[in-house]
Amino acid sequence: MDIKLEDKNDKYEKMRKIMELKNSLTIEKLTEGLLPAVYEYFKYVRAMEFAAAPDYQYLRGLFKAVSKENNFEYDYKFDWIEKLKALKNPSPVEDVTK
């Protein structure tokens, strides 16, 4: 999604445009094609007051229920953790000249 700016060096205009874009996205549009738990998560978070403490047990429960319904192993191994490990420890390049 490209944000059109009149002055490419105007950070405040860029931040304002990003804010407008974020505010214009409905939760339905944002979570389109995702699991209902993701919709419920965003609905909950958007309804929170700024200083409110989230109910972490409820939020974790949303995703634990999805894991259980789909027979996913709740092993705390998330795909982004594996990707980070691969970036930090790239596999050695095989020497094909031998």
Characterization of this structure:
With 98 residues, the chain is mainly alpha-helical. It has a domain at 34-89. Helices cover 55% and strands 0% of the residues. The chain has helices spanning 11-24, 27-30, 36-47, 56-69, 79-88. Helix 3 (36-47) packs antiparallel against helix 4. The longest helix has 14 residues, at 11-24. It starts with 10 loop residues before the first helix and ends in a 10-residue tail after the last helix.
Order of helices and strands: HHHHH
Main β-sheet description: none
Please tell me how large the radius of gyration is: 20 Å
Query: Count the strands?
Result: 0
The termini sit apart by 47 Å
Task: Give the low-confidence spans.
Answer: none
Could you estimate the helical fraction of the residues in percent?
A: 55-70%
Overall geometric form: extended
Mean pLDDT: 81
Number of helices: 5
Q: What structural class is derived from the secondary structure elements?
A: mainly alpha
Instruction: Tell me what portion of residues adopts beta-strand conformation.
Output: under 5%
Describe how the helices and strands are arranged.
Blueprint: H1 11-24, H2 27-30, H3 36-47, H4 56-69, H5 79-88
Helix pairs in contact: 3-4
Quick tags:
single chain; 98 residues; mainly alpha; 55% helix; extended
Could you give a short description of this structure?
The chain is 55% helix and 0% strand. The chain has a domain at 34-89.
